Amino acid sequence: MIHIAQDGTGDFTTIQGALDFVAQNSSQDHPSGSETVLFIHNGIYKERVTVSVPYVTFSGESKEHTVLTYDLFARMKSPDIGKLGTFRTYSCMIDTHDFTARNMTFENSAGPGVTMGQALALYVDGDRIWFDNCSFLGNQDTLFTAPLPPKEVEPNGFIGPKQFEPRVNGRHYYRNCYIEGDIDFIFGGATAYFEGCEFFSKNTDSPVNSYVTAASTPEGQTYGYVMENCRFTGDCPPHTAYLGRPWREYARTVLLNCQMGEHICPKGWHDWDKPQAHMTAFYGEYNSSGPGASMEKRPTWIKRITREELPYYTKEAVLQGEDGWNP
């Protein structure tokens, strides 16, 4: 175990310093199951971190007081294309497989999306990634569950570290996590299972304050986002937040036994002005509860999941893949 403490009592004072040491003393064919644990003591670590070595675990001393934070945002000036853009704003990037984080907070402190634009707290591009009892704090685009879609719609829209890399489907598991933001604050193409999580929509004093999810599930991929026993909360006025919208036409998002506050609008879902997505996307709910849960005004293209279909959406079914992963 490697200890990271800002007061100098550990092995390193920065998270990236410890990761650089691990990278210099590890091999990419590190044996499966032999993890390197970085115990991160309480503190506010203002640094930009990239994890590129597999079988690494971040273990925070406490979720509330172990904070990795940075403050880049999409509208920052950049000499190459005039602005930084979405995908270079991350505070932390997971660019490997078999990574775990427990009991800590990932934050982008740039500010509201209406003024700063997109600002990623976490960019996750890898397979068999597990976050347990973590918080993700930000505003617009807080959590990016890579991969990127195959093609960008706007020139330089994908400029960043993975722009020209192969798009590889990763499996992510989020358990008992807190995720906050305003616009599209959970987005991307990964297969991701959220269990017992809270999704907090922040008020921006706009007619529409929040879209919680913006999946970009690739065509032909079996699963996108599955959210089980989760809570949709927020400080938005009633009926000013959506559960999600399709960043790409084949988006897939399924909610099971989720509680929804009054801030969720009666329609629940938005098509992002993509009528073709009514036929290609898959959005479904089962046993939603709370003030925002009524299915009466949900669009006709929203699937009513049946009890008989539930075995198809268990954590084991969604995440097992060909290797039987079961975090």
Provide a descriptive summary of the structure in words:
The protein has 327 residues and is mainly beta. Helix content is 7%, strand content 32%. The protein contains 4 helices and 26 strands. It has helices spanning 15-24, 113-116, 277-280, 315-319, and strands at 2-4, 36-40, 43-46, 49-51, 56-60, 66-70, 92-94, 99-102, 105-108, 122-124, 129-132, 135-137, 143-145, 171-175, 178-181, 183-188, 191-195, 198-201, 210-215, 225-228, 231-234, 241-244, 252-256, 259-260, 282-286, 302-304. The strands form 3 sheets. An 11-stranded parallel sheet has the order 1-2-5-8-11-14-17-20-23-25-26. α1 (15-24) links the parallel β1 and β2. The longest helix is centred in the first third of the chain and has 10 residues, at 15-24. The chain is globular and about 60 Å long. 46% of the residues are buried. The model has no long low-confidence stretch (mean pLDDT 96).
In short, what is this structure?
The protein has 327 residues and is mainly beta. It is 7% helix and 32% strand.
Reconstruct the topology from this structure.
Layout (H helix, E strand, L loop, with lengths): L1 E3 L10 H10 L11 E5 L2 E4 L2 E3 L4 E5 L5 E5 L21 E3 L4 E4 L2 E4 L4 H4 L5 E3 L4 E4 L2 E3 L5 E3 L25 E5 L2 E4 L1 E6 L2 E5 L2 E4 L8 E6 L9 E4 L2 E4 L6 E4 L7 E5 L2 E2 L16 H4 L1 E5 L15 E3 L10 H5 L8
Parallel strand pairs: 1-2, 2-5, 3-6, 4-7, 5-8, 6-9, 7-10, 8-11, 9-12, 10-13, 11-14, 12-15, 13-16, 14-17, 15-18, 16-19, 17-20, 18-21, 19-22, 20-23, 21-24, 23-25, 25-26
